[in-house]
Amino acid sequence: MSNIDTSISPTPTSPLTNTDPIKPRIRTIRFGDCDIQTWYDAPFPEEYATMPDGRLWICEFCLKYMKSKFGAVRHRLKCKARHPPGDEIYRDSHVSVFEVDGRKNKIYCQNLCLLSKMFLDHKSLFYDVEPFLFYVITEVDEIGARFVGYFSKEKRSPKDYNVSCIMTLPVRQRQGWGNLLIDFSYLLSKKEKRIGSPEKPLSALGAIGYKKYWTFALMRFLHTAPDKPKLEGESMFWLFLHSS
What we know:
The chain has five helices and eleven strands; from the N terminus they run E-E-E-E-H-E-E-H-E-E-E-E-H-E-H-H. It is of the alpha+beta class. The chain has a domain at 82-223: 3-Layer(aba) Sandwich (Aminopeptidase). A five-stranded antiparallel sheet has the order 5-6-7-8-10, with helices on both faces. The protein has a four-stranded mixed sheet with strand order 2-1-3-4. Strands 9-11 form a two-stranded parallel sheet. Helix 3 (177-191) crosses helix 4.
């Protein structure tokens, strides 16, 4: 897919610019009840270059994108989705994770890639989603399972990569969701009996996110480890993951 990025990092400090006049300029997305300023361009159809005030409206359940508030309101009345497609594979109180197959739910996954491109500077894949699984983390309330973030991974990675792209919405940053996504990716690798790692090389923001995750993981392990821990071999690696 692409180098990974992580939304537990701050907003890029460089100004948002449009170097290609052919690409649509989307400066803001309306996602649920939030207006979110975009960081980067995404290859939406050219017709979306002339939207009123540059705002794109996105359904937080099915991820369909629309050009106007009128279209978004009409869609909301008709849309029956209340959670991502695919299988719910994890639930803990108000947190839920869905596994979405890029082959079975192609449109949803393509829309998800377009959404994430607006916040990931290195993302390059948008339409060839069939070889990937997408793990979407949501926050559940009385309305439904609201999108928070996701990570993707190849179904068959020759190098056992467990993350291709990872992103949480900017309005959900600094709340621990990024660490939870990374932790979940390693738990999946543990279940598959693989060590696993994110795609290399890491982007600058990706490196910050993983450094933060492993700093806390090491601190938790050392806090509960025996007096003379020996981090040698695969068995100790899984003990480390279990304790973290």
